[in-house]
Amino acid sequence: MSVRCIKSCFAFVLCFVLVNTTAIAAPAFEKNTGVFDVMAKLNQLPVGAAPILPCGLDEKKRVVDMLRGKDDPDLTMSPDGVVSDQWHDTIEIYKGDFSNQGAVEYALVTTGGDMNMNTVTVYKLAGNQLVDAKLDDIIVANRIPGGDMSRFYSWVGNPFAMIQKGKVYLRYEQYQWAAADPNKIKPMLCTYFWQKNKFAATDPNLNKPQKNPGLSATQRCM
Prior knowledge:
The protein has 222 residues and is an alpha+beta fold. Helix content is 25%, strand content 32%. It is built from five helices and eleven strands. The chain has helices spanning 3-21, 25-31, 34-42, 57-67, 135-143, and strands at residues 50-51, 76-77, 83-84, 90-96, 105-112, 117-126, 129-132, 155-164, 167-177, 185-195, 198-202. The strands form three sheets. It has a five-stranded antiparallel β-sheet. It has a four-stranded antiparallel β-sheet with strand order 4-5-6-7. A hairpin with a 7-residue loop joins strand 9 and strand 10. The longest helix has 19 residues, at 3-21. The model is unreliable at 8-29 and 207-219 (pLDDT under 50).
């Protein structure tokens, strides 16, 4: 079973928890259509930052050919460049130095399921092979010790990654339900800087490490 297949199971479990144990996830989103307008504004890049765009057809095909059979035998690419497998409707591929180590890396961001959740897998280019960079393990060790990825954010920002002054930042969307009124949702955009084995939350404008003194502990990015 591929890494992405395992991740899709985590995403399914989280989706089940959101919808069935709270019983408010879907209705809350339906009643708070304006929340997506707020998130669209939050997704705007800070001054001086540029998005990392998806790979072109040739680069996508190269990655698919390298991973198919080794990591995901069901990975395919259509003639118009849509990458997918049996678990995911769409797999977008990005190229960048995501771990900020001067390496060539590829991020595969999946989309699929009832709530269109995302999973992210990053591979390092090592010769003619792609090696899993173990991003999930690094996130768990830094952000949720003793936990697992089912507790981390299941939607990525748009764009997912950006670069500023030679550094790459990863972006995730977070939606919080108010305890007093579960039909009210607070959207947040969480920005992270990954380097080697460190995965740190940063200020969305990239000015300083995130502190958010005006927010309660439950409103801060994980």
